[in-house]
């Protein structure tokens, strides 16, 4: 409701949300993200009503939905704030053949062609991208979208509309109507973005130092809101400017927000990165037993299993633990990064194609801006450094302490094997 460019389009409007079976069908019926989105939609629907608007909810392939809408009435154009992953771009392109499509820049700070090298090609390394982004950043990048006058097109807003090719059926507006079961969400899912910003304000000054310590809860927990648009990136930037005015060093946090832009920009310009390596031929070595042990938190390496356990139980995982797990997966276990990426995609509440894919490629040493292949995280020294008293491990692993397995690989031996593998693949 706040800072939404869709509410700045003057005129007669039919606000809609489409649940897309292409995205939903592969998910398990108890997917937390669908519950999160559904709750947000119900909230949005009632908030729009207070402004004399409403929200029509559809289930169907977007092209079918627009086809059906256009058959039954006439519309001038469709406006959307979208994302840049390959599926989204293809979908929006398909819709643009049916109806004029206005793409509103909303999700990221910069447009994908805004921060480019002097020769107009995309940056491939983060630090120069970041330095350039800082010089290009202006107050306009945080401008708030102020709603204008909109009137509501007559429509049945009380039911959910299911469109299958040309067939139209209606259902009650509830999660079960789209085949999902309501889930209990964590406090990080149920707190409003505003509450999170207020809580994070007191942690911002220590962010650069504390963010790596898993048990400290020193980060913002805003990734799911940024991913699903329940908070605008411009609102975060305006909040950050306020913090800066009161003397806090905001740069370390700003840098992480730019990381999000960097990854989105990379996937936009190099869509093949979704599945293919950019650099180096490391393919990994498929091993179902290792993969199963990793996915069930049974590798015998406590920090890795604690991270996976946290992911399975809550849909969350601390950034440092994501890095440790991805390194262990791609280096010590030598598994293909695509497998790990898919596993995270299935479970992360904040799953975002660009951030997840590019982070996995970074860890595997295969990406545009990779971590050098010879740098292998030692999960034990990482634990010792960032979870000194083992509180994070205890929090997530205490339940299965009795039958805890021996490590499936020895760190020293598996690192040596990995280095030999990488050298032979170069
Ligand atoms: C293997 C791996 C997979 C990842 N997958 C995802 C993913 O699917 N979705 C996702 O949003 N992030 C992903 N990240 C990045 C990072 O772990 C999360 O953004 C962060 O943990 C979210 O917690 P927070 O909101 O408290 O972050 P904060 O530390 O408070 O950071 C603020 C915001 O900056 C952005 N951000 C922070 N760090 C990164 C980063 N390294 N890369 C990109 N953006 C960042 C996020 O939008 C985050 O909400 C991944 C990292 C790794 C190593």
Structure description:
α11 crosses α16, α13 packs across α14 and α15 packs antiparallel against α16. The protein is 46% helix and 8% strand. The strands form 3 sheets. It has a 4-stranded mixed beta sheet with strand order 2-3-7-8. With 426 residues, the protein is α/β, with parallel strands linked by helices. β7 and β8 form a beta hairpin. The protein is globular. Among the domains are: 131 residues, HUPs (Rossmann fold, 3-Layer(aba) Sandwich), CATH 3.40.50; 138 residues, DNA Cyclobutane Dipyrimidine Photolyase, subunit A, domain 3 (Orthogonal Bundle). The model has no long low-confidence stretch (mean pLDDT 95). The protein binds flavin-adenine dinucleotide. The site of flavin-adenine dinucleotide has 27 residues, from α9, α11, α14 and α16.
Task: Name the descriptors.
single chain, 426 residues, alpha/beta, Rossmann fold, DNA Cyclobutane Dipyrimidine Photolyase, subunit A, domain 3, two-stranded parallel ribbon, 19 helices, 8 strands, 46% helix, 8% strand, binds flavin-adenine dinucleotide
How many helices?
19
- Return the CATH topology of the domain at 288-425: DNA Cyclobutane Dipyrimidine Photolyase, subunit A, domain 3
Order of adjacent strands in the largest pleated sheet? 2-3-7-8
Q: How many strand units?
A: 8
Oligomer: single chain
Name the structural class.
alpha/beta
- According to CATH, the homologous superfamily of the domain at 288-425 is DNA Cyclobutane Dipyrimidine Photolyase, subunit A, domain 3
Shape: globular
Order of helices and strands, N to C?
EEHHEHEHEHEEEHHHHHHHHHHHHHH
**Rg to the nearest angstrom?**
23 Å
CATH class category of the domain at 288-425? Mainly Alpha
| Largest sheet properties | 4 strands, mixed
Strand content: 5-15%
């Amino acid at each position: 409701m706040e800072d939404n460019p869709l509410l700045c389009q003057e005129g007669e409007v039919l606000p809609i949300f489409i649940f897309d079976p292409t995205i939903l069908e592969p998910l398990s019926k108890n997917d937390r993200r669908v519950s999160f989105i559904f709750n947000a939609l119900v909230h949005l629907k009632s908030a729009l009503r207070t402004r004399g608007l409403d929200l029509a909810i559809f289930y169907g392939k977007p092209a079918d939905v627009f086809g059906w809408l256009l058959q039954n009435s006439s519309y001038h154009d469709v406006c959307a704030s979208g994302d840049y992953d390959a599926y989204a771009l293809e979908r929006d392109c398909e819709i643009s053949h049916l109806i004029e499509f206005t793409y509103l820049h909303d999700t990221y700070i910069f447009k994908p062609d805004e921060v480019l090298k002097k020769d107009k090609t995309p940056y491939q390394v983060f630090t120069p991208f970041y330095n350039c982004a800082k010089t290009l950043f202006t107050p306009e990048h945080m401008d708030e979208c102020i709603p204008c006058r909109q009137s509501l097109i007559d429509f049945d807003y009380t039911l959910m509309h299911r469109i299958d090719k040309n067939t139209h059926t209606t259902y009650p507006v509830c999660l079960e109507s789209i085949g999902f079961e309501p889930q209990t969400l964590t406090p990080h899912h149920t707190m409003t973005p505003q509450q999170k910003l207020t809580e994070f304000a007191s942690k911002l000054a220590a962010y650069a130092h504390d963010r790596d310590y898993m048990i400290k809860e020193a980060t913002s927990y805003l990734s799911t809101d940024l991913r699903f648009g329940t908070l605008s990136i411009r609102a975060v930037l305006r909040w950050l400017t306020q913090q800066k005015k009161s003397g806090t060093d905001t740069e370390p946090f700003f840098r992480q927000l730019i990381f999000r832009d960097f990854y989105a920009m990379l996937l936009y310009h190099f869509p093949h990165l979704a599945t293919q390596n950019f650099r180096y031929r490391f393919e990994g070595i498929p091993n179902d037993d290792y993969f199963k042990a990793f996915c069930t938190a049974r590798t015998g390496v406590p920090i890795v299993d604690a991270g996976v356990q946290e992911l399975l139980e809550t849909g969350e995982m601390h950034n440092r633990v994501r890095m440790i797990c991805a390194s262990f997966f791609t280096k010590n276990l030598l598994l293909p990064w695509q497998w790990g990426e898919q596993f995270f995609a299935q479970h992360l509440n904040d799953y975002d194609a660009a951030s997840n894919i590019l982070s996995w490629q970074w860890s595997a040493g295969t990406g545009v801006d990779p971590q050098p292949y010879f740098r292998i995280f030692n999960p034990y020294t990482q634990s010792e450094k960032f979870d000194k008293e083992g509180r994070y491990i205890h929090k997530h692993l205490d339940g299965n302490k009795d039958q805890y397995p021996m490590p499936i690989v020895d760190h020293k031996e598996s690192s040596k094997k990995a280095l030999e593998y990488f050298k032979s693949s170069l």
